Please model this.
Amino acid sequence: MRVSIPHMGNLYIPLKALFQRLGVDYIVPPFNNRRTLSLGVRYSPEGLCIPFKLTLGNLIEAAELGADTLIMPGGFGICRLGSYAATQEQILHDLGYDAQVLQIGLSERKLLGFLELFKRLSNNAPWTKIISAFRFGLAKLNALDRIERLVQKVRPIERARGIANKLYVKAIKAIDDADSYDALKRVQVDYIDQLNEVARDNGVKPLIVGITGEFYVLLEPFSNLDVESELGKLGVEVRRATFISEWTKFTMFLNPLGFDAKDRIHKAALPYLKRDVGGDGWESVGEKVFHAKEYDGLIHLAPFTCMPEIVAQNIMSSTRENIPVLTILCDEQIAKPGMLTRLEAFVDLLERRRRASI
Amino acid sequence: MTKVGIPRALLYYQYYPMWRTFFEELGAEVVVSPPTTQAMLSSGSSRVVAETCLPVKIFLGHVLSLVGKCDCVFIPAIRSVKRKVYNCSKFLGLPDMTRAVIPESPPILEIDIDVNRGKRVLYQAIYRLGRHFNWNPLRVKQASIAAWQAHLNYQQLMSRHGLTPHQAIARISTTSEAEPEAHPNSLASVRAAIAVIGHPYLLYDEYVNHRLIHRLEQTHNRVLTPEMLTVDELESATVRLAGKARWTYDAEVVGAGGHYLESGADGVIGIMTFGCGPDSLMMAMVRRYASRLKTAPFTSLTLEEHTADGGMLTRLEAFLDMIYRRRRRQAEVCV
Model:
């Protein structure tokens, strides 16, 4: 059995660690590239969103490499993601790949669902082994996100542009290579120190731009043309609430116990949107309202045709908490120059607003 | 008397008799917006971002046309009407979205329908809605029972007599029991039986679909629609095609498509709007099933705001010609 999972940001690193420890043959699909996208676009029904197309591309490329058990996150919910796995499996079969697409129910099974899936994949490994592998994967996930947060802070204020990004690439590699808790810890401390020592412009107070929207396009830089790094180059500090580690912490461990980090966000959205509309629409509205005082502006990322985000976009423009919002719709037609022009104009606007308010 | 406005869009076609009975039982007067026009669509789409889907733009146009004509507008947020099967987000965000983009709209009467949260919550939601008209829980209960009965009658009228929602609503509204005019379906000179599948708000809004059903009937075709099937027929076909239904209105596309491909139709036309994700998935399922069964041809028409109907007519004619040719060939083989 050769297992593979579509890409989403750096998620492949913790998964690799996890599967290695379990002794499962895990194939990392080729990183998202033009070919992945065009494969996905060619074989998808036309009205579907970029997450479907890119993950389908990943699945096809993984199947080409010989993967026969493909895992697709999904679950019953209002987002159409719920039935992606079944459709993608049919498309793969039509293309002649005899691969099985397993769906992990994210919404209903939570932690137990994951552990059971890993037990099945690892050919009934003992629970202790599964749990220890799972813990190691989580440790890598947390390390990655900790470094990424720091990179977001350093990017806008570094004196020579690009150093933080270079360090980030190296750090990802080092975390990937770390094979024990000790090594992982050393790598983390090392890179956090290095990032903290990057020469900075001290007098600068960067603009703060929040970034919110649909989960996948937020976390997969290929789908949003690496908007965060581009904003960093323009001297903007990016704040993002969505991290895979945060999401895992809450959906798997804390939500079942009754803690929900999103409660505050939902409460903020209430005057404008009273109920969950599926996907991340409720959170998008909430983030705008909740952080209006703290952020200079907000970038709202959404896949083209994503209904929850369209509902959010329509409501966002009329809230009393008034910060500029730039909605960027991500699909296969998006191109870098167009996006950069819009980002530059947006940042100019924010700078002018800041100058006017002082 | 309070005037309750009901926009003639989206779920109107499924639930109008139920809603009307409920409000009238509670002593309110119901006002329905007129049929869709170009002006309504333009006024609705001027309020929202361009990516918003066509049915929602039309819905907002209907709400705008009700401004000043009623005391409140009824916009339910229907999350789920069957356990673990959810609805498209546009239905959930509808009341809040309307409030955000049409600030001048009359007060919005909303109700949350989610059967996953249990009967108690549902009853409470119904009472909260009814309380705007009558504080007495018993009266509200009576009204809701009458409304449910009206809904069942309406469904039966459509599935048993093969009526479209328009005809059924007309039949319910006229108190006289006069027989309706001979249904074109019963004509002897039927050239082909064409099934049209899709959501009621696309099939029965004549403005949106360029009078598709009318045109099919005029050229002596028998038109079959999802409403003419019983719930059981729809559900069993859905299970055969898609495994388990995931969206509330899966059945009217996947179920109806599957059923008509298996039996009875000479051709199946799927109608969807541009940018609708669930529909594009479901149409793909029906298309795949059609190419596997090879019983009847399938085509899907995607509707959007651009109003020229020439392109659609050309495709429709080509599709029909193909079906007539097929039928002639089959007839020759039989002889």
User: Anything to note?
Assistant: The CA atoms of residues 261 and 294 of chain B lie 9 Å apart. The mean pLDDT of chain B is 87.
